[in-house]
């Protein structure tokens, strides 16, 4: 009779001890954000005493999924902000003398200074100096943007490695869940702490890529990213790869093929990185546009000494009318004046120059910025060319874009052979060129400023939502030490009460034995 | 309701980060004096600051151009003043010579020396340079305006202009042919005496201002020599034209014309007859040289010489007043540009500079909020039920 009672008491003590252990585990993990509070479910079954039916894990997969999706979005924004901030740091427009606009302004004020006093050697040297500084600035920024781009590539590779490492761990965990579930099936199914590790890894994975998780009854799961590209299923994981040359994220199929999923990723640092690459590309294009505009537009009123002259105005189409009437004077092997009217085109002018046969040839060419102009080549640098409207000049910058822009090699010769009588016309042209360059630069800085400002605002809002979801999760799954102490206190009392039954039985046995 | 410990901790971290961010921003505001420090702080301010920086730079360039124009035109005005002084001196000398009936050839030669010096002085000034640029060479800048031998103008026939504001430009190096040009006209054909009869009759069709006139000569009932022709012109067109008979340095005589109005010019539309070779239009230097050569030749200066020197002085004076008018406009631009500069800089400052007193208030507010947060967390942690067990 006593044996049966002792068995029931001993089982009760064991269950209470285990319950206290679970409560202790709760207390120990009070500050672990991924830990879900566990509650032992003790069932009383008369006359067999108590049994630990299961350990309830306080968790809502819905909120976890919501939180993870939000975390993906916030991480994506964070990554985008991080990279855009590095770009922003390059453009110190609010630090006097360091902004790109200062270089543009300095160049054009030097230009206008020269057009005010074209015989001044100091003004000539200053123009060359400021042109070199502007080119240097543009090239430095290009290099800086390239460096950031390379650094994003490096980060993307790291993120992809991290994703692959996490998915491997998750696949392994899927196996462990099954094994531990089987092992603990008869002993209260105390395997739920593995699920905390699972949740931690899923949260970590969400930081890098947006995921969707499906869970079965015992906690095994399938992880997919957008459009059903599976990352983890059962004990298998699928890897990602990053193609730096083409800026793509690839999903590796088990048959060895690779699928570009860049367009399908909608969250996480991988998405942020891809977005930052697109932002960076836009900034680089704008910088390139500025270089192309400078090469295409800025000219000096050179009249001799060089062999390559350009029509000062640029046209959107090669067949556009000149819009101006005047006369070009060619002093080559002989002297000729070519009159043109506002309805003539560049081609008409080229034909007239070519047929003049005085040592000049002309061809309509596309400028780097996509506009059209007339390139007039002199067969002898000593030949002279002038235009009544100042429509002929030499380029200050040469190249095809940001990659190879440089100050024209013949700029010193141009400066020594200026047509002073056209200085005020070129001064007037320079105002338009200045405005055009300023507008492109303004577009660049506005894009950086607008993007980053908008990302930061979006981040603040989305992060607040994330915090709210985290708080909700904490409310549900978090551990209150006060509550746990109360529970432990209660369990302790039960344990003490049950322990007293043992001593009472012991006394009863002693008394019975003494009576014998 | 259950309040998990980690929730409290998370809330604290979140609030702590928010307040610390605000605190550090305000600290930077106060320490740097800048409200906007990075592009993304305020995109509209970034856009406007870049726009203002460009406008300020352009304005600064216009100010420099204005200063350049001011300096140049002041020097042009000064130079023309000196030319005027010289011409007035030569005019006074010519009057004295004309009024004196007993000058010996040596005395006339000495006067010619004085004219030579005066002419040299005017030539120096007409060919004067400022930096690398000739003052009166127009847009050719580096081409010497007047040939020292012929006194012909050889430089550009257009002014060199600079932009002094968004919409206006001024001439800073003037074309010498205009500044030293005259409206004196001397017939190329000369006669042995003022009364030498015309052998071929003809007519002069000319335009003064907007009116055209035809003056016939040599025919019946028409002036028969240059003296009669001059008298005829003075009698019939005296309100428009002055006519003189003037002795040339070689002793011959020519008829000389000049519009009454100082700034007017005479356009010869057609000349037939003996005077068909036309009229010379000497510049001021050449007019002075003509008088000098006459004196060197031992000839007395005549009325036309006096008139031409006086007219030269008046024309220089007129040019000087035109320069003065431009100079005055240029000088008037200075306060406008300086004011605009201040306005633009203030606009820029309003956009990017911090309101320090407001920033300090904000800074204090964040500090108080931070201390309050610390106290709240401490109090919250102290509210454990376990204390009452």
What does this structure look like?
- The complex is a heterodimer of chains A (516) and B (389).
- Chain A is of the alpha+beta class.
- Helix content of chain A is 57%, strand content 16%.
- Chain A contains ten helices and 19 strands.
- Chain A has helices at 2-28, 61-90, 100-116, 121-184, 192-208, 268-297, 346-356, 411-416, 423-477, 481-515, and strands at residues 38-44, 50-57, 212-215, 221-224, 230-233, 236-237, 240-243, 248-252, 258-260, 299-300, 308-311, 326-331, 335-340, 360-366, 372-378, 384-387, 392-395, 397-398, 406-407.
- In chain A, helix 2 (61-90) packs antiparallel against helix 4.
- Chain A starts with a helix and ends with a helix.
- With 389 residues, chain B is α+β, with helices and mostly antiparallel strands.
- Chain B has eight helices and eleven strands.
- The longest helix of chain B has 57 residues, at 43-99.
- Chains A and B meet through helix 2, helix 3, helix 9 and helix 10 of A and helix 1, helix 2 and strand 3 of B.
Overall pLDDT level of chain A: 91
Oligomeric state of the chains in view = heterodimer
Largest interface here, residues on each chain? A-B, 64 and 54 residues
Number of helices of chain A: 10
Care to count the β-strands of chain B?
Answer: 11
Read across the widest sheet of chain A, the strand sequence of neighbours is 10-17-11-15-14
* Mean pLDDT across residues of chain B: 90
Largest sheet: number of strands, sense, barrel closure of chain B: 4 strands, antiparallel
The main sheet of chain A comes to:
5 strands, antiparallel
Strand content of chain A: 15-25%
Low-confidence stretches of chain B: none
N-to-C CA distance of chain A: 18 Å
Rg of chain B, rounded, reads: 40 Å
